[in-house]
Design goal:
Blueprint (H helix, E strand, L loop, with lengths): L15 E2 L2 H13 L2 H8 L35 E6 L2 E5 L11 H5 L7 E3 L5 E3 L2 E2 L6 E3 L15 H9 L5 H11 L1 E3 L2 E3 L6 H19 L17 E4 L8 E4 L4 E4 L2 E4 L3 H5 L1 E2 L2 E2 H9 L5 H4 L11 H26 L8 H6 L31
Parallel strand pairs: 2-6
Antiparallel strand pairs: 1-3, 2-3, 4-5, 4-7, 8-9, 10-13, 11-12, 12-13, 14-15
Helix pairs in contact: 5-6, 6-10
Length: 373
């Protein structure tokens, strides 16, 4: 997957939140302030200040005038991935984001998937907007029109393994066989159909779990009819998490969820338990006066967060069950580099490492001007 993009750099935490209603409250507080108070709440950086305009993000409706002069209407929040397995919401206004990576927004649609080089390969259907490593879109153009694969690779693999190979097939193979190496993730390619099919089968299961049923599929479920459910509703803001391995019960203040397999509770990314990181991102009741816009949060624990926690537990439990199989996966005999070079797959051409020119409509630039090609 030659084309890779650095992650979004937000520059200010208040532009993203787990609850979209909070983003509206922050927007109203910011646009209702004036002068020095608005400047303080905005949190200017070297690249973004209230006195600077910016182009509208591709596919999004937002004002492009200077924020200090005309903030414009509230931009509808979009779903993003802020951390591994942590889906939140983002204000899609480039005037508020230090480095929004417009090239990613241009190829964001219902067909797109993003491979992240976070610790452990991760795929999401949502725009990644956190410190998740380099981002490799599966498609270089909207509508899945052109795969982000080394030219000639699908044809070579198809000829080797006796059937057509899709971009999704290659993505599944990467999930099964990719391993970290000295220069980043390395992907050995199977030389025989048997190992190729085994890798695809494992990769498809990994992909299905990581996408949590998106786009358009059924959310994964634990085997044997087991599913986590709410034993006790969260009625007060939880002051912490607890876990009882004997009863497989996860507690959030006075709330309780069970059964939560130990694999889900113990699942870690970079030495941090994902469930604890997810909970910490939702935090405790905020103190607006002390923290500015970041201090604005929900007054009570949203019921939707508990539903998201149930889905997270299922995802992590299934990935924990798949981890030993993935660790033991053997790609078998490998395609030699000479064969890839002879087929023109390696090295990929320079153009394949750059974004495609996909501007098929006018994009509004700063101050209402339109971009020229």
């Amino acid at each position: 997957m030659p084309w890779a993009v650095a992650g979004l750099r937000l520059g200010r935490d208040w532009v993203a939140a787990p609850d979209p209603a909070v983003l509206r409250a922050r927007w109203e507080a910011l646009t209702g302030a004036e002068g020095a108070e608005r400047e303080r709440l905005f949190r200017p950086s070297r690249t973004r200040t209230p006195s600077a305009g910016a182009a509208a993000l591709p596919g999004q409706r937002s004002a492009t005038a200077r924020f200090a002069d005309a903030p414009g209407p509230f931009p509808d929040p979009v779903r993003v991935l802020r951390a591994p397995f942590d889906e939140q919401w983002l204000l899609p206004d480039q005037r508020l984001i230090d480095s929004a990576r417009p090239e990613l927004w241009r190829v964001l649609d219902a067909r797109q998937l993003f491979l992240l080089e976070a610790p452990g390969l991760l795929v999401t259907a949502h725009l990644p907007a956190g410190r998740l490593g380099r981002i490799r879109p599966l498609h270089r153009r909207p509508g899945g029109a052109e795969p982000n694969l080394a030219p000639g690779l699908p044809a070579l693999l198809g000829a080797r393994h006796g059937g057509p190979v899709t971009p999704e097939d290659v993505l599944c193979w990467i999930l099964a066989a990719g391993r970290p190496g000295p220069r980043g993730y390395e992907v050995p390619l199977a030389a025989d159909p048997e190992h190729w099919r085994a890798g695809l089968e494992l990769g498809r299961r990994l992909l299905s779990v990581q996408l949590r049923g998106a786009p358009g599929g059924e959310p994964p479920r634990l085997p044997g009819g087991r599913r986590p459910y709410v034993r006790a509703a969260v009625t007060a803001w939880p002051d912490g998490l607890g876990y009882d391995p004997e009863t497989e019960t996860l507690t959030l203040g006075d709330g309780a969820v069970s059964p939560v397999p130990a694999g889900a509770w113990e699942y870690e990314v970079q030495g941090v338990r994902v469930v604890e990181s997810w909970f910490a991102a939702r935090g405790a009741p905020r103190a607006p006066q002390a923290r500015g816009l970041e201090g604005l949060g929900p007054a009570a624990w949203p019921q939707a967060w508990t539903s998201e926690l149930l889905a997270l537990v299922t995802t992590l439990a299934l990935l924990a069950d798949l981890a030993p199989e993935r660790a033991a996966f053997n790609p078998g005999p490998l395609l030699p580099a000479a064969e890839l070079e002879a087929a023109g797959v390696l090295p990929p051409p320079r153009w394949a490492r750059r974004p495609a020119s996909v501007l098929d409509h006018q994009e509004e630039g700063p101050g209402g001007q339109f971009a020229l090609l």
